[in-house]
Amino acid sequence: MAEHFEQIRATLAQQGTDIEQVIAHIQTFSIETPSWGYGNSGTRFKVFPWPGAARDLREKLADAAQVQRVTGCCPTVALHIPWDQVDDWQEIKAYAEHLGLRLGAVNPNLFQDHAYRFGSLCHFDKGVRSQAIAHVLSCIEIAQSIDSNVISLWLADGTNYPGQDDLRHRRHRLLDSLQTIYAALPDRMRLLIEYKFFEPAFYSTDLPDWGTSLLMAQKLGPNAEVLVDTGHHPQGTNIPQIVAQLLDEDRLGGFHFNDRKYADDDLIAGSLNPFELFCIFHEIVGAQHESNANAGRIAYMIDQSHNIEPKIEAMIQSILHIQTAYAKALLVDRVALQQAQESGDVLGAYRVLQAAYETDVRPLLTEVRVRQGLDPDPIAAFRSSGYAEQVARERTLGESVGGYPGA
Ligand code: AOS
Ligand code: ZN
Ligand code: ZN
Ligand code: ZN
């Protein structure tokens, strides 16, 4: 391993890069995990309860603290309201801090109330729109009270049949609702607007793509940005290019990482298409190199449902894949790449990327972890802690409070 680390150091030195810079980048990279990833979830066919799965926010935070303990890069947890609703936010904030965590993005729920059958912020009925807006405003208040500065907005709004509603009118209502929400945002809070091309609506979705989210964000103002969920595109979509465009427009708010084979499968990030993940980070690192301001304030978050696999381990595995993709992107020889690009050397340029992608970065990540006092193998560290067995004994098998989509 040590030998391999020296090899990476030497290769980087040849490229004119100090490995300490790369290590510093990896050390300051953090990823937010979602509270809902620790509770039971399932498909519409069945929820298989996991022994010891977290049942409420305190348990979800305790689990997230385990992920932070072994990875050292997951200090914040995203919340979903009302799944994570509590009476006393100061108490929960203090509990999170006691666990070494902070509360992160607040996700309003605009899809699980009976009133939302025909939509929330885009509904034809002003009363329903007002209800949805009021919910988001209360999420802003929660965020303020827990010192979180991100609201992640995802809408299930759409129509199932042509003619069901007027598409332009829905758009007007959406903008109007978002403007009311934006006006209530405190100064340093950001509104991240997520898009998804279908599901649960099957004919039209009101925020179907990055372009629509970007247009909305641009109309709202600088604190509105686009959230890219990697599972929310038609097959074949070039996500790295979307990332490049949003970075260039200064509107890349953050990510919901997960992987998929078919649709919004919410599987372990990087489990199916690690090369795509690497290409996404390649765009980000490229922007960092050019001191793109947006690249420094991206909210990296996970959005997954672990339906049959152990939830905490699945989270750790996802973190490892994301870190690996980022580390590889940091190894790209950017000088050689630019030379190849500017001389029209198509395969030369591709090979520069490939050389970074094929590098075994485990020795590099081991070095980073050892320096942070962590076990080089976070999964093994978690397994040997006995935490999973302990919570399986202590927590009764059953329903989580809130969850997606089954619980
Ligand atoms: C839904 O498909 C979106 O990915 C949401 O971001 C997310 O899954 C939801 O808000 C969490 O349950
Ligand atoms: Zn998402
Ligand atoms: Zn999704
Ligand atoms: Zn998803």
UniProtKB/TrEMBL annotation:
Any one GO MF term held by the record is: L-rhamnose isomerase activity
Provide the GO biological process annotations: L-lyxose metabolic process; rhamnose catabolic process
Record Gene3D superfamilies: Divalent-metal-dependent TIM barrel enzymes
Q: What is this protein called?
A: L-rhamnose isomerase
Q: Name one Pfam family in it.
A: AP_endonuc_2
Q: Which PANTHER family would you find in this protein's record?
A: L-RHAMNOSE ISOMERASE (PTHR30268:SF0)
Could you tell me which species this protein originates from? Ktedonobacter racemifer DSM 44963
Source taxon at top rank: Bacteria
List keywords of the entry alphabetically: Isomerase, Manganese, Metal-binding
Q: Where is the Xylose isomerase-like TIM barrel domain?
A: 87-266
